[in-house]
Design goal:
This protein is 28% helix and 33% strand. The protein is an alpha+beta fold. It has one domain. A 5-stranded antiparallel β-sheet has the order 4-3-2-1-5.
Length: 127
């Protein structure tokens, strides 16, 4: 059942990425048409999360699914790597819709280990 949900989850993530890139391009185009500098066009921004408490770095990055919250409140599910954490926040490394690699802190409740990494053999048993 989880195998059938994986393509749907990835397609939803891809759709979110495409929509974010389209939104940014429309904003740049409107800036040009209005005679504003392209640099004045709004770039997508994230809600800022500040880590609190001692930070534990990962011995090796952990594959996770994370929910990124944009400044305007929209949410985007992304595949990421957890690289550090506190009790309430996780630092994730992820790729933006336009291909940039970023590291951002997100709330721990928005991060989950990737289920496909937990499955061992084809019958679901540990490998």
């Amino acid at each position: 059942m989880a195998e059938a949900a994986e393509p749907l989850r990835r397609s939803q993530s891809n759709i979110c990425s495409i929509l974010m890139l389209a939104w940014w391009r429309v904003d740049v185009l409107s800036a040009v048409l209005e005679g504003r500098s392209v640099m004045a066009a709004r770039l997508p921004r994230l809600r800022h999360v500040t880590p609190s408490g001692p930070v534990t770095p990962a011995a090796s990055p952990i594959p996770v699914d994370a929910v990124i919250t944009w400044y305007d409140g929209r949410h985007a599910a992304v595949e990421a790597l957890a690289v550090a954490w506190t009790r309430e926040q996780v630092e994730v490394e992820w790729t933006t819709p336009w291909g940039d690699l970023r590291r951002d802190w997100v709330n721990a409740y928005d991060v989950h280990r990737r289920s496909d990494e937990n499955v061992g053999g084809s019958d679901g048993s540990p490998s």
